[in-house]
Amino acid sequence: MSLRTYRQWALENSPPWMRGTWGEKLLNIIGGVFDEAYGAVYQAGAAGSVDAPTFPNDALGLVGSERNIERYPSETDAQFKVRVKGAWESWAQAGTMRLVAELAAAGFTAVIKENWQWDWDGDSANWSRFWVVITGHDWELTQWGEGVWGEGVWGCDATIAEAQTLIRLVRKWKPAHAVAIIVVVFDLDAWDSDQPDGTWGDPANRNTAALYHFER
Fold first, then answer.
1. ∠183-118-102 over CA atoms, to 5°?
2. Angstrom distance (rounded) from CA 5 to CA 177
């Protein structure tokens, strides 16, 4: 059974002399004001509950911002709503495990390597360091001189905004005590996923199938 509107209530409970042509118009206006106010209050209440069937999708950005959950360019309303709804669980899992999931939501495939798993530079005791290896993305390697200086990222065709998104996600979701090195792989066939190639301090020894970003 549907709820009666204020318009209906006003007409049903008005005296006979208010049920003429002009009286009915007046009651419709007065009842309409209350109906609009009721609708606005109801929607405002629903906006705080992502599960509500009347939750307005244009409020997703505000709720996501309040929960420090940003929307990724490729996400639909439904996908973003799931992450906004699960914000408390996501932040409880913040660290390398959640970082991989957030990168996946943003369109990246990533593998985490702890420093003790890789002996890149003989500094395996540096327990606070870890490696974010991006193996799935839409970027391609570029040569020096290609593109317009200042409009892209050196070494690949990623835009500055895309690169900033990747770095921001790593900074946001990584363990607070950890230092991340981001490795973007472009040629999986030439990349050895089990053992890096060379000493970190010597660029000539780095694997040419990847680009590197050292977070400090």
1. 45
2. 57
Rg (CA), the chain: 28
Give the DSSP letter of residue 16: G
What's the pLDDT at 1? 46
H or E stretch including 190?
none
The pLDDT tens digits for 133-191 are 998 898 888 865 555 555 667 778 888 888 889 999 999 999 988 988 888 888 877 77
Q: What is the pTM of this model?
A: 0.70
Q: Give the DSSP per-residue string, 92-147.
A: HTTTHHHHHHHHHHTT-EEEEEEGGG--SSS-TT-TTEEEEEEEE-S--B--TT-S
Whole-number Å distance between alpha carbons of 108 and 115: 21
Stretch 66-95: mean pLDDT = 91
Tokens of 184: 């973007």
